[in-house]
Fold M14 family metallocarboxypeptidase.
Amino acid sequence: MNAEPFYPIGTPGTPWGPAEVNQWRAQQQVQRSYAEDVVNKIERLRERFDVEQYGQLDYGTDPFPLYAVRSRNWDDQLPSVLVTGGVHGYETSGVHGALQFLDRHAGDYAGRVNLLVAPCVSPWAYERIHRWNVDAVDPNRSFVSDSPAAESAALMKLVAPLRDTLLVHVDLHETTDTDESEFRPALAARDGKSSEPGEIPDGFYLVGDSEDPQPQFQQAIIDAVAKVTHIAPADAKGEIIGSTVVAPGVINYAVKSLGLCAGVSNARYRTTTEVYPDSPRATPQQCNDAQVAAVRAAIDYALAQQG
């Protein structure tokens, strides 16, 4: 029997209080720059797109402006598409895949769709390469009323005017080896629960909405991404991260009840991408390219259904 992983903060079986959260926060070190990596790239997009600051995170000495990029000639008669990245700040290709899509491919859709892209929803966590925000809260479980995460609340406010009219929403994520080595044990420790070992899937997969799964939409994305990087196989139980595989590379979650970003709107077509950057079979550029391929395939499929 495997011993439960030891997490060095808190008392096993007891949820964290403010002291434990403060101890955890003190251990988080800046490892990269949101301003240099992300904001600089967004600034260079101003010549072609409308850039807006939709909020600011005021975390002590670390104010983080939150930026979204919009189609310059927004037309309410066109279908609208939302792309989100960096809801989990450590998931690098979500951020840089969104920026790469804007820089290299968004122009292909001018006059066909309105684009709204939030490339880095969680900049504090981006800098610290972490899943949680400053309060040890997971933004991707916080897209709920009275959200405990300022990052999630700001994005919900941005999206609210489009909530019922969006055609597509693609939320860009990664599944990494640190999910198993750090983040799941940390979650168990934070919540005073036991940590059950899991298996990290090797490859790309999608999380659809179990309430509205849109299997043909998901398949179109898988087909496109398979040309860029490999698709994650099911494990011996026919599952990926504990959920039944409903089609190659596809699982479903109840996105709204779980407070996931993919449930932030009532878009007709919704999906969450999951790239595996730690695979020996994938490079960082392939991961970015896979995210871009997913966004493009999602938009192309939705437009084709529009006729």
In short: The helical segments are 18-26, 34-44, 92-104, 123-128, 150-159, 177-191, 215-225, 284-306. Residues 284-306 form the longest helix (23 residues). The chain is about 30% helix and 20% strand. Strands lie at 50-59, 62-70, 80-85, 114-118, 166-174, 205-209, 239-240, 243-244, 250-253, 269-275.
